[in-house]
Structure prediction request, 717 residues.
Amino acid sequence: MLKKIILLVGVLIAVTAFFYFDLHQLLILNGLKGSMDQFSQWREQSPLLVIGAFFLLYVVVTALSLPGATILTLAAGALFGLIEGLLIASFASTVGATIAFLVSRYLLRDAIKLRFPERLTAIDAGVKKEGSFYLFTLRLVPIFPFFLINLLMGVTAIKAWTFFWVSQLGMLAGTFVFVNAGTQLAQIESLSGILSFNLILSFTLLGVFPFIAKALLNIIKKRRIYKNFSKPKQFDRNMIVIGAGAGGLVTSYIAAAVKAKVTLIEAGEMGGDCLNYGCVPSKAIIKSAKIVEQFQQADKYGLEKSSATFSFKKVMARVHQVIADIAPHDSVERYTKLGVEVIKGYGKLIDPWTVEIALSTGGKQTLSARTIVIATGARPFVPPLPGLEEAGYVTSDTLWSKFAQLDEPPKKLVVLGGGPIGSELAQSFARLGSQVTQVEMAERIMIKEDLEVSEFATQALKSSGVNVLINHQALRCEVRNNKKYLVVQHQEKEFDIEYDELLCAVGRSARLTGYGLEELGIETNRTIQTNDYLETLYPNIFAAGDIVGPYQFTHVAAHQGWYAAVNGLFGHFKKFKVDYRVIPWTTFIDPEVARVGLNEQDAISQNLDYEVTRFEFAELDRAITESATNGFIKVITPKGKDKILGVTIVSEHAGDLIAEFVLAMKHGLGLNKILGTIHSYPTWAEGNKYIAGEWKRAHAPEKVLNLLEKYHTWRRG
Ligand SMILES: Cc1cc2nc3c(=O)[nH]c(=O)nc-3n(C[C@H](O)[C@H](O)[C@H](O)COP(=O)(O)OP(=O)(O)OC[C@H]3O[C@@H](n4cnc5c(N)ncnc54)[C@H](O)[C@@H]3O)c2cc1C
Prediction:
């Protein structure tokens, strides 16, 4: 900070001195003309010294963003002639501009990043993609003040070297015009004469030309992409959506709501993974498992401690009942009523407008649409462990049906993976009586969360009976004497973990094959590649949900569904970039872990000047009444400001409590606003208000309070 202040003061002194000593008078046309004879004489006497001094002066003027660079460029022509003058002015202006750029980056970037982190991240992303292009255009068009470009570009993440060479190239034409004019200095009456209207127009056209060229290229590119296909003259539908998970359901619902003719194709179960294999069954079993734990901890509530007796079959039957109870929300009947045509079958892209459906009832149907949305989701990733297939395993796809057949929970269960899904299920099955060993390769579970949150989660899982093994790499599965073993490596030693069932929960990979993406050449990496509008390689084919990422949550899939529907149907009028700025998520272990925005490890990795405010639930009356004081709220704010950059909540109901912060962040409300909001007593939500109070206390205006104390002392007489 001190270094920054010294630099800023230095810059201010230099600029003030420049004006105080009237140096700017030297850098006007008449000043230059009047001093030309003297300059030429010096040049004859010591050419190298004059070149060096001139270069330096030019660099200083541009680095400090002082007025006069134009006069210096003319002077370069007048003093050194066209070629030499052009070389000197071109390099000096670029070096000066780059220094101004670096100073701006050093002084301003961090502060601006702290104040507008999302904006700057978006700008950085744009600069990363097309920064050179925009900089080149700005340099070419002389109506944009160069010093402003230097300062603004310094705030972005463009590389200094890129800034240097693009600036040099972009400024070359303008520099040439002025240096050339400088060679005829005597004839120049005013600066405005040099840059005539026609010349400015030509430069502007030159600057705009890359945009026109880009637009034309886009049209040509589009034509080329579609050239091997014949576009139908008429379409059967406005939109076809493949996949009826959260992404596809929301897309088709919105399309129908705005009266588009839309067909939704689903090969499996309506509702996709969330309803049938994911969020819903996992939350259902979490609830049963929590009640078992509560029985065991009944003495905490003044009751007799007991172990819950239960039938695992009934627990699993309840899980399936819960799925069945929610299923009508996503059913064919409901969507048909909403105006969506639902076809059960496997959809395959035939060309950019046509989908062939292998109907569940047998036979095939082909439909065309102007817009197609791919919402085919993801499936559990199964690691290529030797022996795994032979020994057998379950995933979140198969677990619910397989375990529903069991009378008892698996005696020995290995859960492979320390992410949210693995952690939620490991804790639940441990509570239901399985001996659970959770194997995680990384140094901690739930690694996206702060270290203390991971440690908290580990403790929570351990106290539910899970044997959490971190830094353990699964090597292979073996079956010996009818017993199954997972062989793991830890600190270069191998050992066996015996199991009856092994659950793979090491991540989910997008469904990318088998339905025409490869044939159409739609780019895939780990997901379908789309632009910010969710358009794939073919601008009429969109993608939404887990198939796109970057988050794999139901609410994000639904959020993207809106963009896919609106951009797909109305994109020719106006397109919307997906807004990923405020995305919450919750891991439903007990206590829950909820997050929105940055956590501390993000703030550190982004080099932010941040503050952490904490509130412990041990301080909350409601938590005390429920004997559930384990947990905390952690809010990240910029130093000295109440703007919320991110929140982590670890507690009962954390997933619900986070909503207030999501709303605040989305609408730019700071902690002061939360503090000024009435929360009913005694609720968990009061924790949100109390953490805002903690922040306020830490930022109390000490000087004002001291004065107030004196005032009250005086009032007492
Ligand atoms: C155990 C578990 C717990 C989870 N818990 C949560 C949670 O608590 N909160 C949360 O937000 N998220 C959770 N998730 C993630 C959530 O389930 C997904 O993010 C969500 O389902 C993504 O929706 P989607 O529409 O992208 O894909 P999906 O729900 O996977 O839907 C895609 C659909 O497309 C169909 N399909 C695929 N190919 C074709 C084809 N060619 N033709 C026709 N149909 C096709 C599939 O059959 C599927 O039904 C959990 C996931 C799991 C596995």
Q: What stands out?
A: Residues 82-115 form the longest helix (34 residues). The radius of gyration is 33 Å.
